[in-house]
Amino acid sequence: MSLSVSYLATKNFAVEGTPKGFFCSWCGQHEAEFDFNFSANFMGYTFLKANNQQKGLCRYCYAFLKERAFRSKSWILRDAKVDFVKPKDAYNFLLNPTFEKYWFVYITNKGQKQSWLSSILHLNTSKERFYCAFEPFDYPILFQIDRLKEMNDTAVFLRQCKISKTELKTGLFNPKTWEKAIRDNFEDILKKIKQEYANTPDWEVVVYGVK
Ligand SMILES: [Zn+2]
Question: Where are the domains of the chain?
Answer without folding.
Answer: 3-139, 145-209
